[in-house]
DNA sequence: AGAAAATTTGCAACTTAGTTGCAAATTCGG
DNA sequence: CCGAATTTGCAACTAAGTTGCAAATTTTCT
């Protein structure tokens, strides 16, 4: 089982043309077994005895991101962004668009998306929010 | 014009039963004029001469959040979350669900949403991501 | 209006998340 | 196994946000 995972991780790294180091294999193994997006500290915890410096973990993730093996879930940014809630309904706000080139953000007001229904039993969805990425008029 | 904005801000604060202080009026005015979600530092910048301590700005935003006048756009969390990109298409990943009670996050795999189309001309949407909030099976 | 009570503000110090430079260690290709 | 390329750990740093507390402001009560 664990051998398998190890081999799989190594294989993946090799095809991605990344150096196959202890750190990368370990982090990748954690991600392969994860059932949800993880933060650096959560990954570190799951590495257990195999300790790596947090800088190493971040840099490993960076390399995995670079080759497209990994995503940043939530397309999060580092800082919080605030806006008035006035023209948002209880269940959703307008979508936000962020330009991948210039980084500018725009509110795409005037569109309301159909409310998502979970395919998994037992989830009660109260609010949804959609984030879009692409090129803004100025950059396109 | 500016008088109007001021009055409007005061009115809003009054109905929300918040102390009507210089800081709150100023921050609210900025938000009323904003065309997109703003970070604390961006708000500070727009306050111009009316300087307030960043702690004050954060606490002001907190109070506006508390009474529901303001949102955190992107439902952002403070730290980045990473996950394997394997079962995501070029244009979207599965939606993520976060429980507002216990804070747990789940991947709602197995659903693909229709790709959003911008109602505004000139936006080229490459990727979309949906985030859901509500109660998870355990908390519901 | 004036005073007491409630709330907000600013400051300094702190935490958390993530980054950078650099020297030492590891990995790869021949 | 050697040398070049890449990765690692460390320490020090930045950015974003938080906390405690005393002083200032706002509201309420009379």
Concise structural overview:
The structure is a homodimer of 140-residue chains. With 140 residues, chain A is of the alpha+beta class. Chain A is built from four helices and five strands, in the order H-H-H-H-E-E-E-E-E.
Distance between the termini of chain A: 48 Å
CATH class of the largest domain in chain A: Mainly Alpha
Strand order of the largest sheet of chain A: 4-3-5
| Helix share bin of chain A | 25-40%
Largest sheet of chain A: 3 strands, mixed
Q: Provide a count of the helices of chain A.
A: 4
What would you say this structure looks like, in words?
Two copies of one chain form a homodimer. A three-stranded mixed β-sheet of chain A has the order 4-3-5, with no helix packed on it. In chain A, helix 2 (22-33) packs across helix 3. In chain A, a hairpin with a 5-residue loop joins strand 3 (96-99) and strand 4 (105-107). With 140 residues, chain A is of the alpha+beta class. Helix content of chain A is 34%, strand content 19%. The first copy, chain A, folds into two domains: 2-75, Arc Repressor Mutant, subunit A; 84-140. Chain A contains four helices and five strands. Strand 2 (81-84) of chain A pairs antiparallel with strand 1 of chain B. The structure holds a DNA duplex (30 and 30 nucleotides).
